[in-house]
Design a protein that fits this description.
The structure is a single chain. This protein has 457 residues and is an alpha+beta fold. The chain is 41% helix and 20% strand. Strands 1, 2, 3, 4, 5, 6 and 7 form a 7-stranded antiparallel beta sheet that branches. A 6-stranded antiparallel beta sheet has the order 8-9-12-13-10-11, covered by helices on one side. It starts with 7 loop residues before the first strand and ends in a 5-residue tail after the last helix. 29% of the residues are buried.
Length: 457
């Protein structure tokens, strides 16, 4: 540059001169932010027309953050910041069509204004796709996908994956599977969640914390140790969206619910309870409204929905999620108030939660409906034993408390007696000194106090 003005680079796709960049201070390294990264900058904005400043993050005393390539800022920024390196300071000259256009941004930016921004890039990090924003699923887009559609739950996705743990490749393959059943194909939960945000043709890196990977157990079959963080390079080659419930008529929903029930039962028998839960939940999503059905189909829909609630309750019991097991058992009873399975499963949930009396009521309801139900009789015996044990424990606790209070009361009475004795001795004057003593030199009052044992407490 030879000490003169820095060279201006045209950053526009059409090379129309709408965004010109000058590097005032080079940045570090070769890497820069990617589309979807969260970037942190300082900037000063001025008008070309008169050089007046209209905005500055420095004046606010805090850096400005935005997600690159998502339209959160003017077009010129999405183009310009994507070309910067860490620590770089650049000047962007932005024609109005890449800034605020014909409308401007009242009151400081007039219509059709050309703007100049001096921007310093500090840092960036990938997009957090976790629902709790806990940094457990971080995406960085290498190649942007096409269009606007993304896979939905149940969509058939065709992906290319390369998985690494501590820099070592443990997974390198092409795989096709229904989204939501990835664990059947050694695809971790966090990667499935990320794929829900992919567009066709997108290629990204995905970093997963252990919680969203294979957890504390790891997956030794494919070479993932316990508690390992993972990094994937993923390309969504293609996908076929599953039909949404609102796209189906009621009969289609019933057919789909039947298929979900069958898949859920298969997973349940294989002890894959979380996958079973996903399928049973779909039944409820599909059938909770049954308008427009004739009586025969309405009855079929009713029975499928009832089975969905009952099966969810059982799956949640297996997962030791007793509050949800109780909730779905209750939903089943709202549909069928004489359902023995619903009472029994709610009884188990209540008993597991330590609510033996509520459990007893549920198991008794089972017996009232089915006097031959041996399992309910056995559970009633357990409830009776638990209630008895709880009452004994309660009696012991409260009995100990009452004994403690009684001892404290006796101690107070003894202290008051001693105080009264001292008062009386003071009132007697010389007569107090002549009080009859026993062999050990103590008064009869003291002897009585000792015999009661209060002084020993």
């Amino acid at each position: 540059m030879g000490g003169g003005e820095p060279e201006a680079l045209d950053l526009t796709p059409n090379k129309d001169g709408g965004v010109l960049k000058e590097i005032l201070k080079p940045g570090e390294g070769e890497e820069g932010p990617l589309q979807g990264d969260r970037v942190s900058v300082h900037y000063v904005g001025t008008l070309v027309e008169d050089g007046s400043k209209f905005d500055s993050s420095h004046d606010r005393g805090e850096r400005f953050e935005f997600t690159l390539g998502k339209g959160e800022v003017i077009k010129a920024w999405d183009l310009g910041v994507a070309t910067m390196k860490k620590g770089e300071i650049a000047r962007l000259t932005c024609e109005s069509e890449y800034a605020y256009g014909e409308r401007g941004n009242s009151p400081k930016i007039p219509p059709n204004a050309t703007l100049v921004f001096e921007i310093e890039l500090f840092e960036w990090h990938g997009e957090d796709l976790s629902s709790k924003k806990d940094g457990g699923i971080i995406r960085r887009i290498l190649v942007a996908g096409e269009g606007y559609l993304t896979p939905n739950d149940g969509a058939i996705v065709d992906v290319r994956v390369i998985g690494r743990v501590n820099g070592t490749v443990f997974d390198d393959r092409e795989v096709k599977f229904p989204l939501g059943e990835g664990t059947e194909h050694n695809i971790p939960e966090g990667l499935e969640r990320a794929l829900e945000r992919f567009k066709k043709g997108e290629k990204s890196t995905i970093k997963l914390s252990p919680k969203y990977a294979f957890g504390s157990a790891g997956n030794l079959v494919i070479g993932v140790p316990p508690g390992a963080a993972l990094e994937y390079e993923v390309e969504l080659r293609n996908f076929e969206k599953a039909k949404e419930s609102w796209e189906m008529d009621q009969e289609e929903k019933i057919d789909q619910a039947k298929a979900c029930k069958e898949r859920g039962t298969t997973f349940f028998k294989q002890e894959k309870y979380r996958l079973a839960v996903k399928q049973y939940k779909k039944i409820i999503d599909l059938l909770q409204y049954d308008s427009g059905l004739d009586d025969e189909k309405k009855a079929e829909s009713h029975m499928l929905l009832l089975a969905g609630y009952l099966n969810l309750a059982m799956a949640y019991l297996k997962l030791n999620d007793n509050p949800r097991a109780r909730e779905h058992s209750t939903r089943a009873l709202e549909m069928d108030s004489v359902n023995v399975k619903a009472y029994f499963r709610r009884g188990l949930a209540n008993l597991n939660m330590g609510e033996a009396e509520r459990a007893q009521t549920d198991f008794q309801a089972c017996l009232d409906l089915d006097q031959t139900n041996k399992a309910a009789k056995q559970q009633l015996q357990q409830c009776a034993a638990k209630i008895k044990a709880d009452k004994m424990k309660e009696k012991k606790i409260y009995g100990g408390m009452f004994d403690k209070f009684a001892r404290q009361d006796r101690a107070k009475e003894a202290a008051e007696a001693r105080r009264q004795k001292d008062v009386m001795a003071g009132d007697l004057g010389e007569w107090g000194k002549a009080e009859e003593k026993n062999d050990s030199g103590r008064s009869e009052l003291s002897k009585l106090v000792d015999i009661d044992g209060v002084q020993m407490l």
